[in-house]
Amino acid sequence: MKQIISVIIITIIFIALSIYSNKYLKDSAENMTSHIDKVEAYAKVQDWSNVKRELSSIEDIWSKLQNQWAMLIEHEEIDKLEMSLSKVSKYAEAKSFSDCLAENANLKLLIKHIPEIHVLNLKNVF
Hints:
Blueprint: H1 2-44, H2 48-72, H3 75-93, H4 97-117, H5 122-125
Helix pairs in contact: 1-2, 1-4, 2-3, 3-4
């Protein structure tokens, strides 16, 4: 009986931690996505100073999130995200309109995709 209770408690803890980590990933991804949307809006009107300011905000947010995300997601995903963020910054610095928008869309997709693939559901378990 003690073993069954122990298994149930461990399962409940595992599920609770999974729900918490998914909510954390989703909330932080939404925060970054809101800044990425601003980058897109400013890039469309070629307001490069505001693009750089928003990218700086994204980099600050990412520097705070990076260690926590590293515990929760695969490092390959982090590498992809960092490469994309670096590319967007360089394209904005070069004032390359189409490249900046294209890589910004890629960055947004990467960030939105991470919480989706790490949600605990039967599809991901089996």
